[in-house]
Structures are given as C-alpha cells and as structure tokens.
Amino acid sequence: MKPRIVFFDTKPYDREYFNRANRDYDYSLSFVRDRLTHDTVSLTRDADAVCAFINDAIDAHNIEALYENDIKLIALRSAGYNNVDLKALQEKIPVVRVPAYSPRAVAEHAVALMLTLNRKTHRAYYRVRDNNFSIDGLMGFDLHGKTAGVVGTGKIGLAAIDILRGFGMRVLAYDVYENHEAAVEKGYEYVSIDTLLADSDIITLHCPLTPDNVHMINRDTIGKMKDGVMIINTGRGRLIDTRALIDGIKQRKIGSAGLDVYEEETEYFFEDFSSETITDDVLARLTTFPNVLVTSHQGFFTREAMTNIAHTTLENIRLFFEENTLRNQVCYHCG
Ligand code: NAI
Prior knowledge:
The protein is α/β, with parallel strands linked by helices. It folds into 2 domains: about 5-100 and about 300-325, NAD(P)-binding Rossmann-like Domain (Rossmann fold, 3-Layer(aba) Sandwich), CATH 3.40.50; about 105-295, NAD(P)-binding Rossmann-like Domain (Rossmann fold), CATH 3.40.50. The chain is about 35% helix and about 15% strand. The strands form 2 sheets. The chain has a 7-stranded parallel beta sheet, with helices on both faces. Helix 1 crosses helix 12 and helix 4 crosses helix 6 (about 155-165). The longest helix is centred in the C-terminal third of the chain and has 21 residues, at about 305-325. It is globular. The protein starts with a strand and ends in a 12-residue tail after the last helix. The mean pLDDT is about 95. 1,4-dihydronicotinamide adenine dinucleotide binds near residues 100 and 151.
C-alpha cells in the first residue's frame, strides 16, 4: 500500500509544490495548516509518515505520541533539525531531512540583505514613491576591497564566498572543520574567530545552531568587532543574543544588521500579523531601526529550492517505504 503522509505547518506554496512533485509518486498526502504541537499530534493517527518543517515540535512528548501512533518515518522538509529532540528520539523513529536544496538561494538572500543595507534601497524605494528624490543619508560603501567574515564554510557559506569574491572582497572564514582545498580554490583564508570578528567589515553567519554556539554573537564578541560592522544572519536566530545586538546598534558599534532569522521567530515568522499587535518588544524594537532589515526566514524561498525540497522529501520517503533504505538520515548521536 502507498504510504500516507501527513504534512504539518503547510502553506499554499507547500501544497502546490508537493502536489506537483507527487505526480511522480502518487502517495496519499494530507496537508494540515497547523503546526505539529502537543494538541495536533493526534492528527497523525492514520498516517505512516509525518512531514514536518522547522517550527514543528519534534520534542519528547510528540516523539512518544508519534511512536504510539505507529509513525514509521519523520521526513523533515528542511536542512536544519534543531527542532528535533535527538536525545528523546533514541532510535524510535528515523528522521530524514533535505540536507541541500539550494545553498545558492540562501547565500543570494544573505547578499541581498548586504546590498540593501549598504546601498539603502529599502529606504530609497519609499522616498521616491513619495516624490522625495534626495539622496541624503543613502550613502554606502564599495564592497570591492572590503573584508567579509564568513562563519561556517559548508554548502551555503561556500556559495556566499563565491559571490563575495566576485565582488572583489577579501574573505576571512571561521569553521570548526576547515576546508583547505576550498580555501585555495576559492581564494579565502581561515582565521580564528577573534581575528574574523576584529577584521571584518561584514560578518555573515552560515553555521548551524548547536548547543555550543548559542549566542555566539553576544556583548563580548560584539565588543571585538570593527566599529560600524554589518552583521548578517541567515543561519539560525539563536546564534545572536538579540538584546546585545540592539544595544550594539544603539551604541552605533554595529552599523547595520540583516536578519532572516530571529531567536523568537517561531511565534511570528511565516504568519500574517498585520492586523494584530506584536507583543514581542525585542522584535518590535528591531523593526524600528532604519539600519536593520528583518526578513521572515525566506532565504530558502526560491522556485528551485521548493522544487528540490519537494522532490528530495518524497524520494526520501520512497526509499524508506519501497527500498528499506534511509537516505539523508539525521544523526541520533549528534545531540
Ligand atoms: P552545512 O552543514 O553544509 O555547513 C555548515 C558548516 O558550519 C559546516 O562546515 C560546519 O563545520 C560549520 N559549523 C558547525 N558548527 C560551527 C560553529 N560553531 N562555528 C563555525 N562553523 C560551524 O550547512 P548549510 O547547508 O551550509 O546550512 C547552514 C545553516 O544555514 C543550516 O544549519 C541552517 O541553520 C541555515 N539555513 C537557513 C535557511 C534559511 O532559509 N534562512 C535555509 C537553509 C539552511
């Protein structure tokens, strides 16, 4: 029998891309709008597999409930899996993910944030629409010849380095595992995190969130940066202590910040709150700065990436159910 898959936290674009990819598989897909929570986990009762996204809670309670409901596979339609309680998972239910769907999509979005903040096109757009053709206050700097610091030289970090090198920037990198071959090929240099912080005009985060690097950007590390530094985060929100970032901006230590992720994003990102009150004062403060650009975790959001996500997820599911093969499995022993 074809596997029945229940998808949580779905939006119209998920349904569109998964239904299209499913023409090659003909599985039974059911799409739930709500996130996977302790209240919605019961919706998995008649399913064989669950497809979850980054804000779905794959915590101890839900893992136990999914196990009791005889869910055989959890297929994440994301690369990151910091929402999975690896310890609670033990070896109860295998979890697969989409390790790479379009690293260039995220890298290009990181660079879009850099260019916007530097040349202030977000402000120019509104000025001109208001017939204000003054360019006062819109001055940027040439990227050519400046130094970019890339934290995490995996798939996305390397894609970002390609673009930044194309601008003629000097690129410094920090990673817990250094890829010397790539450094030679692409023309960047590994340095200590302190050197990267001290020497970079732009710092961009492309590492995963792990227990060791929560708030790696904090008061202490901000203190080590150049005055007027630009910070870009398309990694995970909790890499940055947002209150320290706000203080750094207020003190003019930080020149600008582009954030596609935010540490408390779960409640707001991907949803429309335009008719409601934002009760998160930290997020509300962030959005008041002209030199801060917040986007709602859209780095991955390109046609190419969505097509790859849908195909890889359904192929992960097919391999498991039809060929008894686990591809792209999340490591149980990493947490
Ligand atoms: P990857 O696994 O290819 O590369 C991650 C790199 O970070 C590895 O080289 C690893 O050694 C390094 N790393 C791990 N811990 C580190 C630390 N403490 N300090 C410095 N480097 C460290 O992952 P990929 O595909 O490049 O993705 C990176 C991150 O981007 C993901 O973990 C995810 O959190 C985020 N992401 C964001 C998206 C968005 O839409 N904004 C979409 C996809 C991923």
